[in-house]
Design brief:
Length: about 240
């Protein structure tokens, strides 16, 4: 028979804070930002991360673990905020943004489009975005599995994960049980260095994930608004012009 301490531990709430990285060079250029193309944050992105660090230094979030995607823009963001949480950074490559193949990594977006054409992520969820890249469906499967693994490993803890807009979009599909083949309701609108908070709590005796915050970025109010593109821009609303 379980003792009261074990029961209390089993039902302790889990808090998952998802942080989108600061504005990145690849967001502004714009270029395809895999491990080769990603050159880290812009000066504005660094300032955004510093503003988040200053907010977290107040003790608002008492984190047990700080995890980050290994892409440079997420690594740099995590390293800037780490002192405020008094935690080392644990790196997790499965938190990467939607992955493109080696041929596309580092290409300017227009050159990417010229070489590989257009993929409508919603109408063609099983189509790879380029040779060696992921499809929307495989990306969403990776996001769901990674969030499951992290929240299982650190159940009952407060987790801060520095990741990407596409991962945060995918969290809605996973935690709310939406169709992973469809684009999420957030639609690529997650702000740089914003906080999204998911809570796993007991609700009428049943465990349930709830959304407590989305796009919480009041710490950035005094900064200039960023001009970014995101992965959903790869799939335009209208077909491309004839390439010939």
């Amino acid at each position: 028979m379980s003792n009261p301490a074990e029961i209390a531990s089993e039902f302790a709430p889990t808090y998952l804070y998802l942080v989108r990285h600061g504005q990145a060079v690849v967001n502004v250029e714009p270029i395809i930002g895999g491990m080769r193309g990603d050159s880290g944050l812009t000066p504005l992105g660094v300032r955004q991360a510093e503003c988040l660090r200053d907010r977290l230094a107040s003790g608002e979030v008492k984190a047990d673990i700080l995890i980050a995607s290994t892409l440079p823009r997420a690594r740099q963001t995590a390293e800037i905020i780490a002192p405020a949480l008094n935690l080392p950074v644990t790196y997790e490559p499965e938190l990467h943004e939607l992955r493109t193949g080696d041929e596309a990594d580092g290409l300017p977006i227009e050159e990417y489009r010229r070489r590989f054409g257009w993929i409508d992520l919603e109408r063609q969820p099983f189509q790879e975005v380029d040779p060696g890249g992921e499809s929307w469906a495989t990306f969403q499967l990776r996001v769901g599995k990674t969030l499951y693994d992290i929240t299982q490993e650190y159940a009952g803890k407060t987790i801060v994960a520095v990741c990407h807009g596409g991962v945060i979009d995918g969290s809605f599909n996973y935690f709310l049980g939406l169709n992973p083949l469809l684009l999420p309701p957030t639609g690529g609108a997650t702000s740089n260095c914003s906080l999204t908070l998911w809570k796993h709590i007991q609700y009428h005796g049943r465990p349930k994930w709830t959304l407590a915050r989305y796009n919480d970025d009041w710490h950035l109010l005094n900064l200039e608004p960023p001009q970014n593109w995101n992965l959903l821009d790869i799939a335009p609303a209208s077909p491309p012009e004839n390439k010939e």
